[in-house]
Give the backbone structure.
Amino acid sequence: MVKIYPSLLAADFNNLENEISEIEDIVDGLHMDIMDGSFVPNISFGFPILNSVRKISNLNFDTHLMIKNADSYIDEFSKTSRQLTVHYEAVTHLHRTVSRIKELGCEAGVSLNPHTPVFLLEEILPYLDRVLIMSVNPGFTGQKFIESSYKKIKKLHEMKLKLNPTLDIMVDGGVGENNIAKLYNCGVTSFVVGAGVFHQEDKRAAVLNLRKRAENND
């Protein structure tokens, strides 16, 4: 089953409620990119925005912590978000962090930057709900998809079959109508899409088209 998570970072913040309501009934959640300007070279938004969006939407929040010292903030993020993802590269005691996320009643995910190999997740994989593969260098929306990501995703899918068959494989960066079917065939089940949804004139049609192309191998 294909899951689509539009990235709020690409939305028009001057018209946020309408942007979300237009697609609310046809997406699987909103992807929240939390950036600290240290782990990644950009600053996005934090608790005030999530709290405000929670008041206008019942969608699942898939919150991606692209920050250092994530352990200090996961308790607070768990109040608005059902899915929390931390970066392998930014967490010192990953098992402890993943365990805490689950204790808070959230699904736990780990993200890998483009340079980080998937074999490093072998020990933690059985404890995860999802792995988020960054197919661009994190920090900015609208970047070009890194082609080596296909091979990386296939390796992760092989690990999934052996270690955690229910694992959700998510990809973020450069996802669009031209590559979503290939990514789905490689084993991706959840797709983060920013400009491919929120920058389109007809956002509903964009979501439906992406889902159709993946499921129909188009």
User: Anything to note?
Assistant: The domain at 3-215 is CATH 3.20.20.70 (TIM Barrel). The chain is about 35% helix and 20% strand. The first strand starts at residue 3 and ends at 6.
